[in-house]
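Form 7-S
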Amino acid sequence: MDIQRPSNARAKKIKRILYVTGAVIAIAGITLGLSRLKPAAPTVDASTVWPDTVKRGPMVREVRGLGTLVPEDIHWIPAQTAARVDKIVIRPGHLVQPDTVILEMSNPELQRDVLDAEYQLKAAESDYANVKVQIDSELMNQKANEAAVRSEYEQAKLQHDVDEKLFKEGIQSDHTRNLSKVREDQLAIRARLEAERTAIAADSAKARLQAQQSRVDQAKATYQLRLSQSQSLRVRAGITGVLQLVPVEEGQNVAVGTNVARVADPKKLKAEVKIAETQAKDITIGQKATIDTRNGVVTGHVSRQDPSVVNGTVTVDVTFDEPLPPSARADLSVDGTIELENLKDVLYVGRPVHGQADSTISLFKYSPDGSEATRVNVKLGRSSVTTIEVLSGLQVGDKVILSDMSQWDNVDRIRLR
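Output:
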């Protein structure tokens, strides 16, 4: 027969509540624990990053830029008159001497002007010769008149002396003596006036000849100018060097002053280096520089700095202190490095990809075992081409990543494998 058992529903209900409460507490604890766990660090291949170690010691500040070799002595040859290019005798690249003809030009009007100037010069010279003959003739006549009057004066003076002696001896009358005295005085005055007239005639002759000579000189200068312009139609190099450029073509008409050729001395070259405007502020004249010609490195010094900025760069001229390699030539591309200063004892590291002078950036610093890297803020100071000064945030011996880590900007820690 069935035996009725005592009811335990209440105990089951309490036990069920305890189970549910325990499960809720366990889930809450697990959730709280998981929320306090750090997110898993992403893994980065160590071979793909660029590491460097912080050091202390001397650091040379340098700036670098690309440039070209250009001649120091460049001779541009302008057209001295409007003309037409008839023939280009030689092309760029030829070695030239001062009298080497580069191109030939023509100007029919100039040839006519040369002939006109030559005839005007001959006419002026003829006029000068004619005036000179006239002046000489007039001056000679005046001198003859002066000589005649002076001769009469000397005769009158002698006659007066004779009359004076005869009067004293009682042979000649006083009236005769006085007449000879008056004649002597009159001729003395005439002789003095003729002498003054001769001097005036000589000065007048000199002035007239100078005026005529000025006309001759003017005509000669005009003729020499036209002749020089005519000779310049055969364009010559003017210096010893290499013909670099002929910016005109046969049949082209050129105006006065148009550059028709460029000649340079290939033995005297300098480097024009383009430096970023942000790095050029500390460059001064005389600083040491090295130029890599890709066939040797040559030392020099800064000789000039362009005062203006063009396309974000400043042009710096470097003059060489030693001979260039034989392969160096104008327009050759070079790399230039300029030494700004030598810092004796500073904390420095390789320059990060995005590291700028006097800025604060974040870098990943290696853990002691090298398995991880943690982001740290680093304050940077003075910079060079490949190194930069560390002001704070790192110590000697710290190893950091210098390569671009922008894809990990949202994490503060990475794992390295």
